[in-house]
Design a protein that fits this description.
Layout lengths: L1 H14 L1 H7 L5 H10 L6 H14 L21 E5 L7 H9 L9 H6 L3 H5 L10 H9 L18 E2 L1 E2 L9 H19 L3 E9 L3 E6 L6 E9 L11 E6 L6 E5 L4 E7 L9 E5 L5 E8 L3 H5 L3
Helix pairs in contact: 1-2, 1-4, 5-9
The structure holds fe (ii) ion (FE2).
Fe (ii) ion binds next to loops.
């Protein structure tokens, strides 16, 4: 019955441009359940999972696809590009909209989050992916969760992921405005870049949060991240707040000290010799937010040609 509601909602999405556009702002099943209910389609996350199996068989390609083809060869190849938002003409309104997403939902149990901090896990950022001890420690971290004595187990208790995925939190007073701002931001960004894009993740890094070494290899293509902090004074040196990656060719670790209000681009590859290992640490007393997007190489036409 409710599985039926899921499939009917998917059909509605496919046939309604406004809904399709809203789906580009969604990164979590919790958000689809919420959007379905808003439009009169009632189902649970479990019912959605069950329906998805049928749906994927029926469709040849997913509802929303972003061009990840490799036609950016004419540009100087770098693994990472970063711009101050204030230095991009035409980014003023985009910047303002990003700020509206910088929320701290009151449904996040911040004390429990703090309790799940582990210095050992954070220090893994100092181990290079090519060092002999890396592989064993990485594989171990993938399956290590801190037992906080609560069910369901929070995602931030995972050794790899000590941060808050905002899109998992849909039942709080700020969610509706937050969601509307995400949808508006997609529209503004598509207009600016003249290409389709979609959210890939909306993340809140409270003080001492970290995202440990990973490659995102299952979702290759260009990634754009807006990064901001709520207290610039707290950013004092690259050992406190950084984005670190390993250059796939030279194996050198590159550490980018973080600044407020920047937009960062990097390319995720899936070939084993081109994996972009990266990690993020916020060792400050400030809150960090990052809002990620999948987008095509066409962003380069707008920002690399002056
Ligand atoms: Fe990542």
């Amino acid at each position: 019955m409710s599985k039926d509601a899921v499939l009917k909602f998917y059909d509605a999405i496919e046939n309604t441009d406004a809904l399709k556009q809203q789906c580009k702002a969604i990164t979590r099943p919790e958000e689809i359940v919420k959007l379905g209910a808003k439009h009169g389609y009632f189902f649970t996350g479990e019912e959605m999972t069950a329906a998805d199996a049928d749906y994927t068989q029926k469709r040849e390609k997913p509802l929303i696809t972003i061009d990840s083809s490799d036609s950016d060869k004419s540009f100087p190849q770098a693994y990472h590009y970063e711009f101050k938002c204030s230095e991009i003409p035409g980014f003023e309104e985009i910047s303002q909209e990003v700020e509206k997403l910088e929320i701290k939902p009151d449904t996040v149990d911040i004390e429990l989050f703090e309790k799940s901090f582990r210095e050992f896990d954070l220090q893994f950022a100092n181990v290079s992916p090519v060092s002999p001890e890396f592989k064993a420690r990485y594989l171990k971290s993938l399956e290590t969760y801190l037992d906080l004595g609560v069910e369901p187990r929070p995602e931030y208790a995972w050794s790899q992921f000590h941060l808050i995925n905002l899109d998992r939190y849909v039942d709080h007073a700020l969610y509706e405005d937050y969601f509307n701002s995400k949808v508006k931001l997609i529209k503004q960004l598509e207009y600016f870049f003249e290409t389709d894009l979609r959210f890939s993740g909306s993340l809140w890094y409270p003080p001492n949060a970290y995202r440990m070494w990973h490659t995102n290899e299952t979702q290759p293509g260009w990634r754009m991240y807006f990064v901001d902090y709520d207290n610039y004074e707290e950013l004092t040196g690259e050992d406190r707040a950084f984005f670190r990656y390993m250059n796939p060719e030279t194996k050198e670790l590159v550490t980018i000290a973080e600044k407020t209000k920047v937009v960062r681009f990097f390319k995720i590859e899936s070939a084993p010799d081109k994996l972009l290992w990266h990690c993020i640490v916020n060792r400050t007393k400030a809150n960090r937010w990052s809002f990620g997007f999948n987008l095509s190489h066409k962003w380069m036409n707008k920002l690399l040609i002056f």
